[in-house]
Amino acid sequence: MSMKILNPKNIYHSPRYYSGVKAGNTIYTAGRVPLDLEGNVVAPNDARAQTEYIMEDLKLILAEGGATFQDVVYVHTYCLYGEDMPVIHEVRQRYMGDHYPPHTGTRVDNPFWVERGIRLEIEVIAVVED
Amino acid sequence: MSMKILNPKNIYHSPRYYSGVKAGNTIYTAGRVPLDLEGNVVAPNDARAQTEYIMEDLKLILAEGGATFQDVVYVHTYCLYGEDMPVIHEVRQRYMGDHYPPHTGTRVDNPFWVERGIRLEIEVIAVVED
Amino acid sequence: MSMKILNPKNIYHSPRYYSGVKAGNTIYTAGRVPLDLEGNVVAPNDARAQTEYIMEDLKLILAEGGATFQDVVYVHTYCLYGEDMPVIHEVRQRYMGDHYPPHTGTRVDNPFWVERGIRLEIEVIAVVED
Question: Residue B21 is nearest to which of A102, A107, A109, comparing CB atoms?
Answer without folding.
Answer: A102
